[in-house]
Structure prediction request, 317 residues.
Amino acid sequence: QLFLTENSDKSQKFLPRASQIAGLFVGTYIAIIAIFAIWLRLAGMSLFDSIAHSISAIATGGFSTKNSSIAHFHSNYITFILSLAMLTGGLTFLEIVKCMRNGFKGFFKNQQTLGYLKIILITCFSCVFVSFLVDKDNISMKNAINYVFEILSSMSTTGFSMQDSGHNSSSFWTVLMIVTIIGSCSGSTAGGMKVFRFQILYSVLKHHFRQLAKPHDISIPKYQGQRIDEDLITSVITFVSLFAVTVMASVLLISMTGRDGPSSAFAVISSICNAGYDIKFQTLSCLEKFILIVDMLVGRLEVIPMLILFTHTFWKK
Prediction:
């Protein structure tokens, strides 16, 4: 029940029993890690570094064996391979397993997967294009790859270090925060609000406005070609509302400790979306750390299951 509450995506009917799918999941996961580790090794990383970074990228954990993270390697090939790994980590793992079993025939028919890829393509193209217009002399393949890397690092909530990238404009960081909040696909290792929730909200709002414009028009909101359940709509709206309230409350509490608003918002978004950006933890007070610890737990378990765990009725026999 908690898994379904966290996932909220009732449109996926393919849910095999754990006893049947556990081995396939583990095997697929290890195979993906091995593939990217081999690619990273061929790109110039040491064996240990390639395995460590492959595990970190697929799990969207963002840990690196180097203090300067990916900037240490100074390699476009490594940056590109890790971008693909983070992209994979943000996909619904169940879809990857299904591809391993049935091929890629139905992979791009999944509405959430298409939405996830579209957001990445539009964001990457827009940022590179605007950068080219603003500073034509600074555009290069290296900068373009770095933009893609940083956007994927944020949207997959991996949070690999972006230092020494040169992309420090406030507008670009605003874009990164937005895609961090959106997050990746449900059923992935990533955090954030998840793409399908925004798709559900868009479909419901579109249907609502159509009804206002044409009151006698008979139509129903759909997702993945199926009618959107009322329970799913309620679940998504509840989650989005609680998520927003949690973020605002956390920002307010941290701001009361003396930290400025933008820094407070950045710290909270980084924590609740499990992005793991460097927010200068050594400068935080005990109260700020406690608030962000709670935010990280809420972001990983998601808001509704977290609240359910603290309700009396859940624990009653």
Q: What stands out?
A: The CA atoms of residues 32 and 58 lie 8 Å apart.
